[in-house]
Automatic annotation (TrEMBL):
Protein family membership: Belongs to the HSBP1 family.
A Pfam cross-reference name: HSBP1
Chain residue ranges for the region called Disordered: 57-87
Compositional bias annotation for Basic and acidic residues: 75-87
A cellular component term, taken from the record's GO annotations: nucleus
UniProt organism field: Linum tenue
Protein name: Heat shock factor-binding protein 1
Species lineage: Eukaryota, Viridiplantae, Streptophyta, Embryophyta, Tracheophyta
Length: 87
């Protein structure tokens, strides 16, 4: 009634477009932040696992376990089975 009825659909479309673009930018920013955080945590976990492996190997060396059977021994048995099949 105040003369804005003719421009209202265009303004409404422009407002909606701006709103959606802003929302998508916010979502992209949040996803990027989460992605960076996840990658950082995975890298930290990898470092901790490497540290743990070194500590375990150091403890095994201190205990003199290096010469005794390790958890990889059952794998050696599994490896011999396919060798028997191929022979």
């Amino acid at each position: 009634m105040d003369g804005h009825d003719g421009d209202d659909p265009k303004q409404s479309t422009a407002d909606m477009t701006a709103f959606v673009q802003n929302l998508l930018q916010q979502m992209q920013s949040r996803f990027q932040t989460m992605s960076d955080s996840i990658i950082t945590k995975i890298d930290d976990m990898g470092g901790r696992i490497d540290e743990l492996e070194r500590s375990i190997n150091d403890l095994r060396a201190e205990m003199g376990v290096e010469g005794s059977p390790s958890p990889s021994t059952p794998k050696a048995k599994d490896e011999s089975k396919p060798g028997d099949d191929s022979a």
